[in-house]
Amino acid sequence: MRNNRSKTVAGIIAVGVAPLALVFASSGSALAHGYTQDPPSRSYQCKLGKVQNCGPIQWEPQSVEGPKGFPKAGPDDGKLCAANHADYSQLDDPRGGKWPATDLPSGQKTKFTWTLTAAHATTDFRYFITKDGWDPTKPLTRAALDPQPFASVDYGGKQPPKTVDHDVQLPAGKTGRHLIYAVWDIADTGNAFYSCADVNLS
């Protein structure tokens, strides 16, 4: 009787552990995650509760991971802010152009801060910005962005710390509402992390 009971308990444990093992096995680079905290990304705005109806990204703002190679490859147009994740599609919703925007000084050096829940060997961090005259009421596309990053920080495969600060020069001559598309390229996987931050340049 005791042997049968032990087998039953062991079977229950095995059934319970198997799905967890599958989750960890399929997560790949799940421990290498990050987001821009300053200026606050859309995912971080959701985490802070400053934007409602965000879906699951409010609990995991660090998880906007997608294929790297932007702008030639990477996430699809219209799905750039969520990096093709259907679960995070709220990040691609322009919300009528009314996402909270951070005031920044055009043409001046500004600190950009990433929070990494786990660091990873890194190729670089790159920052793109929308063109003058882009439409903030539409989902972000490549055509809406300047083709070259306005700032790029090379890491050469090194692992950054958990908090990463970059002093970057904002483009001169741009004013009004813009969106900054930040890309963290991972060196030893096929993925990158993407972060959309709404800003007002003055």
Percentage of β-strand residues: 25-35%
Major β-sheet profile: 6 strands, mixed
Which percent range fits the helix content? 10-25%
The CATH superfamily of the largest domain bears the name chitin-binding protein cbp21
Q: Based on the structure given, which CATH architecture of the largest domain is correct?
A: Distorted Sandwich
Sequence of secondary-structure elements = HEHEEEEEEEE
Overall shape: globular
The averaged pLDDT comes out at 88
The CATH topology of the largest domain, please? Coagulation Factor XIII, Chain A, domain 1
What's the tally of helices? Answer: 2
Give the number of domains: 2
Contiguous uncertain segments of 5+ residues: 5-31
Strand runs, count: 9
Write down the CATH class of the largest domain. Answer: Mainly Beta
Rounded to the nearest angstrom, the distance between the terminal CA atoms is: 78 Å
**Whole-angstrom Rg:** 20 Å
